[in-house]
Fold this protein.
Amino acid sequence: MKLPWLGACLLCLPLLAACGPGSSASPAVAPAADAAEFVARHWARPLPPQGPAPAHFTPAATSLAPTACAGCHPRQFADWGSAPHSRAMGPGLLGQLQEMGADAVEDHQACLECHAPLAEQAADLRRALAAANPAGFAPDVAGADHRDGLTCAGCHVRQRRTFGPPRADGSLPAPGTDLPHDGWIATPAFADSRFCAACHQFDASGPALNGKPLENTYEEWRASRHAREGRHCQSCHMPERRHLWRGIHDADMVRSGLAIAASEPAARDGVVAAELSIANVGVGHAFPTYVTPRVVVEIGQADRAGKPLAATVERHLIARDVSLDLATEHADTRLLPDESRRYAYRRPRDARAAALVFRIVVAPDDFYARFYRASLRDPDVRKGRAALREALRRAEASSYVLFESRRPLAGGGLSASRVASGEESR
Ligand code: HEC
Ligand code: HEC
Ligand code: HEC
Ligand code: HEC
Ligand code: HEC
């Protein structure tokens, strides 16, 4: 993805930065250096403060608030507002920051570098934590509200300069065009997985268990067919450059990456036998990639009313199951890219059984829920209590049924109108 004219321009960034506002040497679109080098500099944290805006910038171009970009980039703003990056300062994080207190700025930074990376947001957070009445706190005047999480400027603006991909059609603005925010510095690094790895991959010195970093998404991707075929994180998570970033919390996104099939159950000689298969056909890394979600496969018999017959239900975990103190990995049963698995079921038939039910349940925030419950049991946790209670409520509410199929068992005393729940029989 490296464009030929980039290699020659490793030095243009520092030069451009030295140019004053309105300088004729500051083109509307300037190429940046090679992707690895660009990403290392762009995401060297803590990010430095933006500094004063050039005098000719309009108020809209001066503000760091996503709402300021919205006036000219409404589509990106609408997508971002519906996406997890805009919610990266949720109550689970805020509760923990409240516990740290206003002056623990280095501790804040250990979280903000991924969750709200602008220096101006760190200052805003500190003021909010120190405020006597946090509810009445007025956010930063320059528009860097810590509650906005990972903002447009967090990914696109450094030292008041805007960075982005080249135009989608490869064209360039006509020379001398006067663009808002002095145009942008174009780099293909924005379409490269390394741009995302800055926050979605721990480096070799980060926390690891059984030889695998706790956040290993980029390396999982790099070892996959998707990397070989040139499909980057953005190809799946930002289709047509849309700012969606759907992941484990979105049932349709998860379904798009899996092939799931339930066999017709055989009920013979008092035994019920069947099989469920799951294949990771389109997730660009392990399913799921993090230690936080818990996916449970359930196969079991149900009575005529559809009620599960508890003693007949089998459960299988798909997760990287780690202890709450992150000291032990109990199991790693995730599905790597292109891996498939079969879950066979074979059990005596319960006399009341009328159907066999296959279910896959996803709890995207299982680890966090366990963590919040433990924190709330700790009497030393005080300032963050209300936020952590809200975070627990949200984490529990995020679970959903990914797949459900209810198959009648022959001789189950079922009439043609089976107790099916909307699932077609084959
Ligand atoms: C007054 C209108 C205006 C405001 C406000 C504005 N932009 Fe822009 N932006 C533009 C225009 C016009 C372009 C040039 C588009 C082109 O010529 O293809 C542009 C280009 C960009 C690009 C490069 C697009 C590409 O094709 O790669 C990025 C990234 C960008 N803006 C981000 C932002 C962010 C982030 C903010 C808020 C901090 C912002 N803009 C605020 C008008 C605006
Ligand atoms: C997590 C980092 C991130 C955040 C947050 C983010 N962007 Fe982007 N943006 C990107 C990446 C990466 C691309 C390029 C995607 C590609 O090339 O496939 C991009 C592309 C763009 C483009 C060019 C779009 C096009 O169709 O050519 C514009 C304009 C833009 N972003 C504006 C914004 C605005 C406005 C916001 C906030 C509402 C925002 N971005 C938030 C990472 C981000
Ligand atoms: C500055 C750090 C940062 C960068 C850069 C970044 N992300 Fe994220 N991303 C986060 C954080 C923090 C969250 C969690 C938000 C929250 O609190 O729920 C997240 C969440 C996500 C999720 C949703 C996860 C879920 O649980 O459903 C996806 C998908 C995602 N990011 C993809 C990307 C992609 C693709 C890129 C590159 C274009 C990218 N991210 C760049 C920090 C980042
Ligand atoms: C290297 C980047 C990175 C750092 C540093 C980081 N996080 Fe996260 N965090 C993420 C990503 C990515 C996710 C989303 C993945 C997921 O859902 O598990 C996330 C999700 C979370 C969530 C659950 C989603 C939510 O918003 O409620 C909490 C809580 C959280 N982080 C707290 C913290 C705290 C506290 C710190 C600092 C001690 C921290 N994080 C540091 C990247 C980071
Ligand atoms: C081939 C498509 C594809 C590619 C490439 C891809 N992903 Fe995903 N990603 C998915 C799908 C589908 C899901 C939903 C299933 C899941 O959660 O594992 C997902 C989920 C996620 C999640 C949610 C958290 C979790 O535990 O699963 C994050 C974060 C994420 N991807 C980040 C990335 C990053 C970063 C890259 C690049 C290094 C990347 N993805 C590359 C398809 C892709």
